[in-house]
């Protein structure tokens, strides 16, 4: 059994060289990154009672970034002192991530693998599943394998796109066909998951929901903000018992 969808991997491998081009095909993720990082830092600070008084805020915490791509989230967390491991099923993505981290003197452990392959023996304080669950082949296996790598009392972030009419209009038609933010075919609307569908899996995985927050893009201010509206983009936060 595998969580890897080869068609999805090939899709992202073809454009892997553009991961760090803020004006390229991954421009939406570069725009998205500040609000994602802030949310992660806020929740980690509260959950682990971190002292927000230096640049090593995340020192002592072990992070696993699943579907890390070129390292857009792994690198900022590493700069804040986190011990970061990034995994991705695309060897090309990992190659790009390794080169960029080395160029910036960042010690991040990158591996071309997926969680169910059991290559990683460590347990982590924080696991990030950011914009990845909608691209995997077997969601149940993916969630179970990711949760197995989480420490007791550790937290998991799941950021994805809701399956609603609004998400079809904005994330598919708007982002891919009208604004051309993403290559056409980046997302399959039928693979999107509702918050309830993910939450229903939590009890079997010994996870407790801590938070659900929506993320909205404002065309006028050209930035992302947190919102109570989860009809398109949202982040679920869960704790392992």
Query: Percent of residues in beta strands?
Result: 15-25%
**Low-pLDDT residue spans:** none
- Summed over residues and divided by their number, the pLDDT gives a mean of 92
Residues in helices, as a percent range: 25-40%
Number of H- or I-type helical stretches: 7
Please tell me how large the radius of gyration is: 17 Å
Q: State the total count of DSSP E strands.
A: 8
What is the name of the CATH class? Alpha Beta
SSE string, helices as H and strands as E: HHEHEHEEHEHHEEE
Sheet with the most strands: spatial strand order? 3-2-1-4-5-8-6-7
**Largest sheet geometry:** 8 strands, mixed
Query: What shape does the CA trace take?
Result: globular
CATH homology-level superfamily? Vaccinia Virus protein VP39
Architecture, CATH level 2? 3-Layer(aba) Sandwich
Task: Give me the secondary-structure topology.
Layout: H1 6-13, H2 27-48, E1 62-66, H3 74-79, E2 83-88, H4 91-103, E3 109-112, E4 124-130, H5 139-148, E5 150-161, H6 165-178, H7 195-199, E6 207-218, E7 223-227, E8 233-240
Parallel strand pairs: 1-2, 1-4, 2-3, 4-5
Antiparallel strand pairs: 5-8, 6-7, 6-8
Keywords for this entry:
single chain; 241 residues
Question: Could you explain the architecture of this structure?
Answer:
This protein is an alpha/beta fold. It has a single domain (6-240), classed as Vaccinia Virus protein VP39 (Rossmann fold), CATH 3.40.50.150. It has 7 helices and 8 strands; from the N terminus they run H-H-E-H-E-H-E-E-H-E-H-H-E-E-E. Strands 3-2-1-4-5-8-6-7 form an 8-stranded mixed sheet. The two termini are 26 Å apart.
């Amino acid at each position: 059994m595998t969580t890897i969808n080869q068609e999805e991997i090939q899709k992202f491998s073809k454009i892997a060289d553009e991961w760090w081009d803020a004006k390229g095909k991954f421009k939406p993720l570069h725009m998205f990154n500040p609000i994602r990082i802030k949310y992660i830092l806020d929740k980690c600070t509260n959950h682990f009672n971190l002292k927000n008084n230096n640049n090593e805020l995340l020192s002592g915490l072990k992070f696993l970034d699943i579907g890390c791509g070129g390292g857009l989230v792994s690198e900022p967390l590493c700069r804040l002192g986190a011990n970061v491991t990034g995994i991705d099923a695309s060897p090309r993505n990992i190659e790009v991530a390794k080169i960029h981290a080395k160029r910036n003197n960042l010690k991040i452990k990158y591996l071309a693998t997926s969680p169910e392959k059991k290559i990683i023996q460590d347990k982590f304080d924080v696991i990030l599943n950011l914009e990845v669950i909608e691209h995997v082949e077997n969601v149940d296996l993916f969630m179970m394998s990711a949760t197995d790598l989480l420490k007791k009392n550790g937290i998991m972030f799941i950021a994805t796109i809701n399956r609603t009419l609004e998400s079809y209009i904005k994330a598919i038609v708007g982002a891919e066909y009208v604004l051309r933010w993403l290559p056409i075919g980046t997302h399959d609307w039928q693979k999107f998951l509702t918050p309830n569908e993910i939450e229903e899996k939590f009890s079997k995985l010994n996870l407790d929901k801590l938070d659900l927050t929506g993320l909205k893009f404002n065309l006028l201010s050209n930035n992302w903000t947190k919102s109570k509206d989860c009809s398109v983009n949202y982040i679920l936060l869960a704790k392992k018992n």
